[in-house]
Amino acid sequence: MIAAGLIAALIAAGCGSSSSSSDRNTDMAQSVGKGEGELNLVAWAGYVSNPWKSEFEKQTGCKVNVKVGGTSDEMVQLMRTGQYDGVSASGNASARLVEAGDVSPVNVDLVPNYKTIFSDLKDQPYNTFDGTHYGIPHGRGANLLMWNSNDVTPAPTSWDVMLDPKKAAKYKGQISVYDDPIYIADAAVYLKAHQPDLGIDNPYELNQDQFNAAVDLLKQQQPNVGEYWSDALKQISAFSGGDDTVGTTWQYQYFALKGKGQPVASSPASQGFVPTEGATGWSDTWMISSQAAHPNCMYKWMDFIVSPKANAEVAAVLR
Length: 319
What we know:
Layout: H1 2-17, E1 38-43, H2 52-60, E2 63-68, H3 72-79, E3 86-90, H4 91-99, E4 103-104, E5 128-129, E6 132-133, E7 136-142, E8 144-148, H5 160-163, H6 165-168, E9 175-178, H7 183-194, H8 208-221, E10 225-229, H9 232-240, E11 246-249, H10 251-259, E12 264-267, E13 281-289, H11 295-305, H12 308-318
Parallel strand pairs: 1-2, 1-3, 9-10, 9-11
Antiparallel strand pairs: 3-13, 4-13, 5-6, 7-13, 8-11, 8-12
């Protein structure tokens, strides 16, 4: 059962985040030398694409190999193999990587383009720990509600199209839900608006009663779900083929489907409004492995990917 899996994974994640800071890696690079000629990355779909990938390789001579991760849990496990130099870690992975010593602090003085990054992305609790930078922040966005505008009418303005059992039943078997413990926060956002007596303030910090209520809501949702997705490309395929008609998604899938001429609409970002309950979001951080075999290429990548031109190219594709 997906709810049981989410509970187990969330408990495991929580235990990992509470570990002692004594396991943290504190070795920080003091200089960046010549690139090693290769770079192995774990990244979300679309994060290491052309034209910026080929431009980086041309500029630095570092050939980029990328492993696309479907979930934060998968990314953490891949990084722990020691086979990758860096990762585009989301907030629900970065603390685990830091506390377990899987990543090294980042010397931002060796990343000249760090100064160009939007200030609100810096010094956040998912990229800076006890005043030490453990990564280079890179982008943020909302978790979208997406639907097929031919099949879902009227256009929804609330997450109830997925989370209210009676309304969701209309699309039974065609609802697409992100398969990760972090989705419990989406349920909490919904409950915050519809059950204020629960007293939910932060959807990412729930007491036991609030947590139980969110899990119960997802259990009620389960019979109507057709797909729990972790692979962005599979969700694109499911919407393209008509198997999914409404679901939670990222900007990457939405814009990919729009580019294919699919009749999709979404909220909040692309339509200028948010669902009545609000929405969760994400912000990612490029982090360097404490076992990086190609640290110079990784530092060059972190500087390149947040340079104004590359950053604009990424934004055009992903946002």
